[in-house]
Amino acid sequence: MLARGTAWFIAPTILVAMIVMTSLGGHETYLMGDFRAFYCAGQAVAAHANPYLEEPLRSCEAAAGPPAEPAFLRPVALPAPLPPYALLAFVPLSRLPFPIAAVIFELLMIGAMIGAVLLFARVTGASSVLLNLAFAAITATVTLYVGQPVPLVFLAIAASALLARQGRWIAAALCAAGASIEPHVALAAIVGMFVAFPRTRLPLAAAGAVLAGASAFAVGVPTTISYLRDVVPAHALANAYEWQFSLTSILTSLAVAPETAIRSGEFMFALMLVLGVAVAWRLCRITGDPAVMVIVPPAFAVFGGVHVHFQQLAIAFPAMLYVYQRFPNVRILAGTGMSLSMIPWNVLSTSILTGLSPLLVGVFARITLGQRRGLVLTCLSAVIALSLLFLALAGFGPPPAHFVVHVYPPSTLAENSWGAFSRATLARPSLLMQWLRLPTMVGLACGLLAIARSAFAASPVEQRTVAERIVAATA
Question: Would residue 126 count as lying in a domain?
Fold first, then answer.
């Protein structure tokens, strides 16, 4: 009971510590920086303006604080690339002063994450302690701190999986459609359900029509068409150089032309989506559990692709824990993968996680893999954290940024100014930044391999045992 109660406070404690440390240090902060863009896009929608243009986004973002936008970002329009129907949700918050809206949004995201953990615990069979440990670092740093709506996606996916297991197909389809706040994450779950469960096809199509109508209502038909035709490709190009975990970002950091990198990322997304659906279909046949068609395809879809940040990678964790709980032969592989991928290594140099990462990994690995392997992974985590300092001191960090402010016409897409900023300040290929990708990608690959092995290497005895466990758990 004590461990379960304590685990719920890990992510909020890290968040508060980061806020306090930033405030005491007197540094400019990106606290709620992403939410600022969504807030201003909500204002634009409410004013019947285009939420994807340089203006009114840039002016609103520069004046919205506190917390104040960092000075180096004020000449830049941070885009809000969510679909129009998703921006509708920010309209009520945009009518409030920014500080009040930010607090309300933060509380909503904390509540959504609590709900997601509770539902994922039922879906995966893993304890809330493991789920809180797995999600804590990513939730605190690249979700709650910057103000991302990803917890809503997690909540919707978890609810959809649980409803699918219960045979409540319409509700499951509607929840999956609700997760399309992040379309490239939700699409994998939607395709999995559409392929496997005929009774979800009509509700999914109806939900798609409703979302299209909501988009037209929010910004008009021409802007909705422009979002698909212009904004999405422009955002892919603007972020092609940004440091991420997408294949596109990796290729551009290796001097591949951005157009080629984007096409390669699109191909890999399609390939991993098909692979994820195939693996989920096999697992569904083995386990008799429809929930896997919802949680497994997104886990594969976020490996590579065009635009993948740390907060989206975390959608793979429930699928890893699912097979960890049910297939003993892949527990070492799944637990190791989780231990390597649960820490956002790219923010270690600017957050309290520098000291906490070995502790979080150590506790998680100790519970899942035992004392000896837990100690090994704890030491490995400490070595990774220290390697960042050594590489930086040795001069292998990113070169100095040289960002020259360009003035863009108000009617141009916000992706233009953001793309210029991203290429100048966020790309900067270096050995340190390339190394930071490695633990996460290796960990995610281990987790996906564990899921695939569970689907295609399970013996008939294991298949019967797993099916019996799921029947007993859902009875």
Answer: yes
